[in-house]
UniProtKB/TrEMBL annotation:
Catalytic activity: heme b + 3 reduced [NADPH--hemoprotein reductase] + 3 O2 = biliverdin IXalpha + CO + Fe(2+) + 3 oxidized [NADPH--hemoprotein reductase] + 3 H2O + H(+)
Protein name: Heme oxygenase
Gene (UniProt): HMOX1
EC number annotated for this UniProt entry: 1.14.14.18
Transmembrane regions listed in the UniProt entry: 267-287
Family the UniProt entry places it in: Belongs to the heme oxygenase family.
Chain's role: Catalyzes the oxidative cleavage of heme at the alpha-methene bridge carbon, released as carbon monoxide (CO), to generate biliverdin IXalpha, while releasing the central heme iron chelate as ferrous iron. Affords protection against programmed cell death and this cytoprotective effect relies on its ability to catabolize free heme and prevent it from sensitizing cells to undergo apoptosis.
Cell compartments where the protein resides: Endoplasmic reticulum membrane
SUPFAM superfamilies named in the record: Heme oxygenase-like
Membrane topology recorded in Swiss-Prot or TrEMBL: Single-pass type IV membrane protein
Quaternary structure note: Homodimer and higher order homooligomer. Oligomerization is crucial for its stability and function in the endoplasmic reticulum. Interacts with FLVCR2; this interaction is potentiated in the presence of heme.
Main subcellular location of this protein, as a coarse class: endoplasmic reticulum
InterPro entries reported in the protein's UniProt record: Haem_Oase, Haem_Oase-like, Haem_Oase-like_multi-hlx, Haem_oxygenase_CS
Record keywords: Endoplasmic reticulum, Heme, Iron, Membrane, Metal-binding, Oxidoreductase, Transmembrane, Transmembrane helix
């Protein structure tokens, strides 16, 4: 006989996941990158970065979904026509990065970490794939719809949907009804209490992978803004480990990666700042 669930733990997996991820959802909404996005403070550069990460993430997610589409631990959630995002993201990549986008798109550390976990789950623990599909697809069908409108306005994109194909689900007539169907399918998955607990933990981990990605992108964008304001004293700059700095992310106006000499030579920056201060004082004394 199955043990009764404690009061605090809803019976349905869909309810349990919603409940268990409430806190990390708030954390995701409050990540600086997302907060700025919601305020309409999203630049082309930031948007291109996050979309490229999503491209890599969905390629991995959908590869693992295809691998497991006939496995009972995932099969009831297989909705390629309605949900799969790879083709849409490929169109978005071509829009944002041009015809040679495959060679041009960045692939950040946090994105790689997320992709690695998706492959691990798909190959070794497919019973946890539901957690990743839930976290992404139900999120895209919910808050994602608001983000699409914000991006179109902030980036002055055509209302035809070019550049934001990712957010458009042409084969989902009603997001609300589809989410209901998806939840009911999640609730048909048979799993032991032990697996169910691991699924819940994996969903929280999936949210955290997203949050780490937003934080990484924000850091990269922040560094770029700092690189463009030489008036700031070098000591006041936030530093990150050299590994987090992906040279390919420092774009010139034409999109060509270019190393930034000043950002790579703190001593040189100090010397320049010091020379400027000495020169200013000398001129001041001379004028007096
Ligand atoms: C600015 C950021 C975000 C906003 C404004 C937002 C907003 C929303 C809203 C309004 C809902 C619908 C809640 C409901 O129907 O009860 C929702 C649901 C959801 N969101 Fe988000 N969200 C954001 C970020 C995220 C992120 C980063 C993820 C994960 C990657 C995510 C995953 C989800 C999931 C899985 C659901 C479905 C919850 C359920 O019904 O079980 N959201 N979100």
């Amino acid at each position: 006989m199955e043990r009764p669930q404690p009061d605090s733990m809803p019976q349905d997996l869909s309810e349990a996941l919603k409940e268990a991820t409430k806190e990390v959802h708030v954390q995701a909404e409050n990540a600086e990158f997302m907060k700025n996005f919601q305020k309409g403070q999203v630049t082309r550069k930031g948007f291109k970065l996050v979309m490229a990460s999503l491209y890599h993430i969905y390629v991995a997610l959908e590869e693992e979904i295809e691998r497991n589409k006939e496995n009972a631990v995932y099969a009831p959630l297989y909705f390629p026509e309605e949900l799969h995002r790879r083709a849409a993201l490929e169109r978005d990549m071509a829009f944002w990065y041009g015809p040679r986008w495959e060679d041009a798109i960045p692939y950040t550390q946090a994105t790689r970490r997320y992709v690695r976990r998706l492959h691990e789950v798909g190959r070794k623990e497919p019973e946890l794939l539901v957690a990743h599909a839930y976290t992404r697809y139900l999120g895209d069908l919910s808050g994602g719809q608001v983000l699409k409108k914000i991006a179109q306005k902030a980036l002055d994109l055509p209302s035809s949907g070019e550049g934001v194909d990712f957010f458009t689900f042409p084969n989902v007539a009603s997001a609300t009804k589809f989410k209901q169907l998806y939840r009911s399918r999640m609730n048909t998955l048979e799993m032991t209490p032990e697996v169910r607990q691991r699924v819940i933990e994996e969903a929280k981990a999936a949210f955290l992978l997203n949050i780490q990605l937003f934080d990484e992108l924000q850091e990269l964008l922040g560094q770029d803004a700092e690189d463009q304001s030489p008036s700031q004293a070098p000591g006041l700059r936030r530093r990150v480990g050299s590994g987090a700095r992906d040279a390919a992310l420092t774009e010139t106006p034409r999109g060509k990666p270019q190393p930034n000499l000043l950002s790579q030579a703190p001593l040189l920056r100090w010397v320049l700042t010091l020379s400027f201060v000495v020169a200013t004082v000398a001129v001041g004394l001379y004028v007096m």
